[in-house]
Amino acid sequence: MAQFTDVLYLVVTLAVLGGSVTAILLIVNRVSEFKTTTKEKLKSRGYNVSDSGVSVKTSKRLDHEGYVDATQRNFIKAFNASSFGTPGAGTSSTSKNAEKAPESKPSVRFS
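Structure (tokenized):
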């Protein structure tokens, strides 16, 4: 026959296991709710998150000419901001053997 302490240990063990399972279920439930509310908030801002990826809703439409103009404009800005071909490009300031090149900054212009 089981003694009182054996029954007490059984009850405590079952209570701990039941509490652990309940805590895990609550955590999973909260994470699931957080995930759905975050998806809804992002969807209201124009971001649709799905299993296949993220899609972004935009209200701005560009025609082909506007797209090409914007691409060329940004390419020229990036090219003019680069240091390619300028004196000292790619060399450190402590280099003793650096040759001095004529100072000119290349610029590109499209008509």
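The longest helix spans residues 4-44. DSSP finds two helices and two strands in the chain.
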